[in-house]
Amino acid sequence: MKMMYGMLMALTPAALFAIYSYRLKALLLIITGVASAVLAEAIYQKLTGQKITVKDGSAAVTGLLLALAVSISTPLYALGISAAVGIIVGKQLFGGFGKNIFNPAIFGRLFLSFCISRFYFTLERTCRYGYYIYSTGNNERDWRIYTNS
């Protein structure tokens, strides 16, 4: 689908800015999100005997959207699980591309927030001089400051 590759091109500046801002962690999140979504779609379609349609780019868009929508402090395994749930439950169980009633990326994000909520409410901000301010989101006393070193 040309439209999905157009969406990937449209999301490229946001992905590049995330990589510029958060370096390796953002790159790993993007790779994990896209790879998990594409693999989940391919494995599900292989197991159910459907035609494998990962070349249409819709799973890659879902993985990239999800990777850009989560906190930078989200563990890679949590992102991988939520991408797989978004693709399998939010997309494939409803018939695949064009037949799903939910946006698979948002479905994966909701799964992350409801089932693995500790990572959804965690904030991490980059300060100007290389410090990270980290909060578990429980109360104001949980803020911690870390250096880049």
What does it look like?
It is a single chain. By secondary structure, the chain is mainly alpha-helical. The protein has one domain. It is 58% helix and 9% strand. It has six helices and three strands; from the N terminus they run H-H-H-H-H-H-E-E-E. It has helices at residues 2-22, 24-47, 58-69, 76-88, 104-115, 117-120; strands at 123-126, 131-135, 144-147. A three-stranded antiparallel beta sheet has the order 1-2-3, with no helix packed on it. Helix 2 runs antiparallel to helix 3 and helix 3 packs parallel to helix 5. The protein is globular and about 40 Å long. Mean pLDDT is 81; it is low at 126-131 and 141-149.
Distance between the termini: 44 Å
Instruction: State the strand order across the main sheet.
Output: 1-2-3
Largest sheet: 3 strands, antiparallel
Summed up, the helix count is: 6
Category from helices, strands and their pairing: mainly alpha
Could you estimate the helical fraction of the residues in percent?
Answer: 55-70%
Number of strands: 3
User: How many domain regions?
Assistant: 1
Tell me, briefly, the overall form.
globular
What string, H for helix and E for strand, traces the elements in order? HHHHHHEEE
Please state the CA-atom Rg, rounded to the nearest Å. 16 Å
Q: Low-confidence spans: pLDDT under 50, at least 5 residues?
A: 126-131, 141-149
How big a fraction of the residues is strand? 5-15%
